Structures are given as structure tokens and as C-alpha cells.
UniProtKB/TrEMBL annotation:
Residues 106-228 form the VIT domain. It comes from Plakobranchus ocellatus. InterPro entries: ITIH (IPR050934), VIT (IPR013694), VWF_A (IPR002035), vWFA_dom_sf (IPR036465). Residues 362-538 form the VWFA domain. It comes from the Eukaryota. This is Inter-alpha-trypsin inhibitor heavy chain h3. Gene3D superfamilies: von Willebrand factor, type A domain. PROSITE patterns: VIT, VWFA.
Amino acid sequence: MESTSLASVSMGMPESLEWGKVAAGVAGLLHPRLILSFEKMLPRYLDSPTFQQNFVDAACEETRCSDFRCRPLPPSPLLLTLIIMLCIQANCMFLKPFLFPKCQTLAMEEQNLIHVLKMKKVESFQVKSDIRFRFATTQTSSTIRNFDNQAQDVNFEVAIPKGAFIVAFHMIIDGKRFNGRVNKRQTAGNENNIGQSVTQTPRDANIFEITVNVPAGSAATFVLTYQKMLQRRQGFYEYELYINPGQTVPNFLVDVQILENRKLTFVNTPALRTGDLITSCIDDNGEEKTNELAIINKTSTTTASVQFKPRENQQGEAVKGISTRFVIHYGVEPGKQGGDIMVFDSYFVHLIILDYLTLPKDIIFVLDQSGSMGGRKIEQLQQAMSKILSDLQPQDRFNIINFNHSPSKWKSTLTEANKNEVQQSKSYVGDMQAGGGTNINDALLTALSDLTPHHNKHRVSMIFFLTDGHGDNSAEVVAQNVLQANRNGVVAMYCLAFGADADFESLKTLCGRNKGFAKLIVEEDDAAEQVSCLYKSISRASIKNLYIRYDKKTVDEATLTKSEFPVVFNGTEISIYGLLQEGAQSVKYDILGMRALGELNISGEEIDVKTVTLKPNEINNQLLAGSPDRSNIVERMWAYQTITEKLVEKDIHKGDEKKTKELLEDVFLKSLKYNFVTPLTSIVVTKTDQGMVQIRKTNIQDDKYDFTKFNFTVPPSPTTEYPTTTTTLTLPPSPTTEYPTTITTLTLPPSPTTTYPTTTTTLNVSTVRNGGNRSRYSQLSQDSGHFRAINVYSQKYAVAPIMTFLVLVLKMFRAGN
């Protein structure tokens, strides 16, 4: 007989499915606690090339063998099942060396296998998002059921985008609802904080994770809501959602609703992004790859909906399910030259798009070549610089300063970015060798001394600075020296912290004080792409020294968010929020700045408040039904932006305790008022007396700053006083209806008795269900997946004569062992 592989055994006979069902019955009799239902498993796996691995996973303790090969078996699923069951029962004392010679450990102890079978199943995973005027409210809900006969820990984990604030959380366990509330960041009494520490995996996201104890047979539903302002980049807005339910989910849905104030120019969904690496989304024809499973429906010129609802067989590997980043891009038709203003309940938002010709720039690249940059880092830096230098425009001027214990200059002064000079600069960077110390102070002061004499109001001056470590001098000393040398902040500084060893916190302070920002470059395969992408985002400056000025008679200046911008880049958007003065009937503003064609001066604009006031149906957000502030989305946008800006501003005032405390106290009070989980607040959930809700692990924070040094006081809740006068109402007595007391007794005839045979055959059968892996279940869970029970009745399969014979043989075998 021709031999065949284990995977092809189950496909070798047309009646393999029915034989598999018979084998399930035998398995149940052989070991009543070992529940393997082929009724649901076989239709999915028999025709799957992964059947071999998935099936053996249920029997092997260690399946990730480096050289896994199975000895060929005869083409009979029944025999296959019996042999595997015998291996488990007899601990493979005599069959293991012949069947699986390459596996170091095949047999799983009975108790370990039963433990694997007692896992959890994600029954539902749904995400609903409401995007209104660039402000996204996202609600993620998941229902997980415990199929074990005893209480088990259930884990709920969500990756939320960096910069998003959690606004609501609740969970329903065994029919009981537990609401979280935003409070001061601390643990007290019988409460647990959700949001104490930070875990930044995946990249540019934070992890919200909670573990609770769920009774046997019960389900836990978790609902998390967060908000984030979408930023315009390269001419469009991007909404990103991290999806990782841990296993395939029967009820899976992502539903995104978009409402904007102007016409939507396009809505698309790029291909799903797996992992964090920056990869190309362009197909062989030069077009952007799209997510073919997403359904886009433009319901009107200003509204659209996007749905993503993959079936289980479209959700990736059965063991892990789908793990991806779901992305939506959309564009909005630009408004008038002065931008658009929207008002609701005296709060306003001013949205301005200023896409003009690109300003010429003077830029110096300050590159770290110290000893720590050796090997892969210096190679990735050279790759990134090759792309960046090629992107320079002919009207630009540039230079390169590389440094270790001392700085070195490529040219003595700024050089025109012509083709010949760019090629020479690439060769210079390509010859850089790592070695020496890290003299950041002298390198930056050298760059500033070359840039400041060439300052010109018609050009943009900037430093592009990359380092992977700590400087030889004190970070605060360097920051003070640079600030003094950068007179009036005429040079914008953009810092790249390369890898985990870089002093990212100090770089944020350094760049914040010098009209720029810092970015962390993750030390991975795409580090070169990260560097070049950051440069691309700052290389197209359209306006410098932009200032939006409002009439003090109509706008409360104390409530305004940031209204001065050193540099504005093409493809971006300016957003300003504030509160109108009481009784204001109009908004008057001036827009001033410098562009490539000369001064920008849009003045005298006066907007009638009535014409820009939003309607109630435009601001009603159903995802915040439990929030007292759900009706005023503009006010929440203002609060969000204010908190975000002040958390950034605290880095600029590092060392000034008084100013820092003032900033953070305002963040703290607004966080409590608007239910935002920020670095100063957290969500607390009260346990029940029965101890059913036990929070094992929680992670959510977006800053390494030590906020515990400030002990802010939670303001008392407002008290409403009511009159103490009590009015007593006397109700007339209820009418009494008398009914007769006679009771009639009905006698029913006896029910007929049916006699049934007393012999009973019981099979305990269920199915194997692949699911998500969790680290707390160690390698066992990761290899074998999650399981759930599904009943299969033995009456279907115990009627064949062959079964009687096999059952007797197997039971005799059990008795002998």
C-alpha cells in the first residue's frame, strides 16, 4: 500500500468525514474527559494544509520542533485517531519512538491537556467609531466566554493610538455591570486603577489591558471608549485602528461613520498593515493597494460610512486570528482663504488650510557618529541620508556636521543643493565611521553659528539633528547654551532620538524650546524609512511666523489654544479653539505670516456667529451616551487640544517647578471635568463584595514624566440645595374588592407510564477550537490554541457494529494499563 502523510490521511477517503465522526465517538469512550468533536472540526480542517499541525497540537506538549516529520500512516482517519488517543492514554510508552521520532516530547500529561481544553472564547469583537469634524470617538467592545467548569481569568487588551485619551470604560460580568470612573491617579481602598504604567507596543500606541476573574460558564463584556484628534498630513486625514482580538471571532465588525463640514473629496482604505514596519503600499502597477474587504458608502457629499466585516475564514490564522492595523484615509475640500469657523454653545473651532508654494530652506544635518552608532545604526543612517539628500530642492542650501568627541563640517559654509553637491554629500556620509564620544553641545553650537548669519525672512532655517545616546555635557547645560545661541528662535530644531538609549526626554525639551519637536526612531529594520519619513514631513514649509489674531471684544483670549506657529508645512491644517465672549454676535480675526510670494495678510474677516453655529444633530455623539458632555463636541475638542498642548509645554519649562505645576494642575482639573484619562488621571473600577472582579494587570500612560511629585486636590462635587419644606399628601384608602372564598378542586386522571430500557450509553464529546495566545498560558497555549466545548450526540455514531468491537478492545486496553 502506498504510504501517505499525516495531513493527507484524512483526505484519502471520500467517507473520511463520517469515519472521523465514528472516531470521535471512540475518543470519547476511550477518555470521557478528553472531548474532541469532529463534527465542527473536520469540515474546517480536513481540506486545510495545516490540519496536520493543528491536530497534533492537541496531543503534543511541544510541537514547535525544528525538524518535525511524522512517519507515514495508512489512509484511515479512524486508525489515526485511535493511535493518537492510545499515545495520550499510554503516555506513548511504546508507540512514540515509531510514530514521532523527531519530536523531543510528544505526549502531553492528561492534566495538561485538560488544562488546555479549558480556555476562553471571544464571541464578539466590535469597533464603532464616530468621526465628526476631524475628532474621532472610538468604542471597542469584546465579549469573552469562560467555557470551563470553574472560574477563570479573562484578559481584555486594546492598543490605542498615541495621543488618544480614554473617556469611558465599563464591563459586564455574569450580567452585572461595573462602571469605571476617572479619578486622581492613585490606588485607594477597594478600588483598582486602570492606567498606571506604560507599554508602548505596538509602535506609536499604548496598551490598555485588564484581567478579571469570570465565573464558570459566564461571559465578560468589555467596552472601552477613547477620543483622538485627527491631523491632516500630506493633504488628507488618517484614522488608524489597531485590531488584535487574539483569535478568530464569529461576530466581528468595524463600523466607522464620518461627518465633515465640507465636501469629502475621497475616502479610501489602504491595504491592512501587519506589524509596525513601514512598508510599501504600492502594487506592481504603481497604485496604492486597498483593503478589498472594506465597504465604503458615501451617504452624502459630507458624510460617509466604512464597514469592515471579515468572516472567520478571512481573519488570518485560526490560532491567532487577525492582527493588523486598519486604516482609513479621507480628504476634505479646502474652505475659503481664511478657513472655516464652527460654533456651538459659545465654543468655537477655527480650521485653516494654507497650502502655498514651498519656501526655500537653509538646513544643516547634525549627525552622531560616536562609538555607539557603530554597525547597523550607522548603516541605516547612511541609507536614510541618501534618500533625504536626494529630496533636496535646487533652491535649498545645506551642510553636514558629523560629530563624536568633536564636530566636523563637510563644507565650510552653506552650499547650494545642486546635483553635483548632493552627490558629493552622499559620498561624504557614506564614508562616515563610528567611534569616539558624543559632544552634542559643540555640534549644535557649530550648526547655529553657521545658520544664524544667513537668517532671511524669505527662507526657513532649520537643524535636522540625530543622536542615539546621552551627550558628554549636562542636558540642561546644552539646552541653555543652544537657546542662548539661537537668538529669538530664528532656527527651528528637529531632533531624532535613535533607539532606546537616546535621551529622548531631554531632546523634547531641547527642541520644544527651539520651535521644533523630537521624534523617537525605533531601532528596527525600517529605521532608515522612519528617518526619511520624518524629514519628508518637515521638508515642505509653506509659511513661517504664522500668527492668528482675534478681536478681544469677541473672543476670550485666555481660553485660546495655540495661535502662533513658527513653521507651517504644506498638506497640514491649523486648528484653533476658544470661547466667545458672552453675547458675542461675530468672530473677527487677522491671519499674518510670510510665504514664498511675500507677506501673508488676511485681515478684516468678520463671521456672523449665527451662520456658523452647528445644529444639534451635527454634534450629537451616540458613543458618549453616558457622558454629561456628549452634546457639545466642540467644547470637548477645545478641552482635548488644551490638555495636549499643555502636556507638551511642560517639557519646554523643565526645571521651572512653579510653571510646570501651574500647567499640570490645569491639565488635572480639565481631565476630571471632561473624563479624560491622561498621565494625571486614571479609571478606577470598584470591586464587588464577592470578589468576582479582580484586576490583575493594567497599562495605559503616554509619558515618562514623574507626575507623582505634584499632589493635586480633587475638587468637591457641586452640591445642589433644595428647599426643606415638606408637603404631606394624604391619599384616600384604596377600594377593597371581596371575592368568594369557595375553592374548586379539579382532579386530573393519572398520566400513562412508559417503560424505557435501563441501559444507557453516554459520550462526552466536544470540539477543538483554535484561538488567541496569551503569554500567561506559556508555550502550551501558544502552540495549542484555545478550545471550546460543543456537544455531539453519540446516538449518531455508536450504531455501527465495528464500534462495539473497538470499544471492547479499547476498554480492555485501559483496564490493562
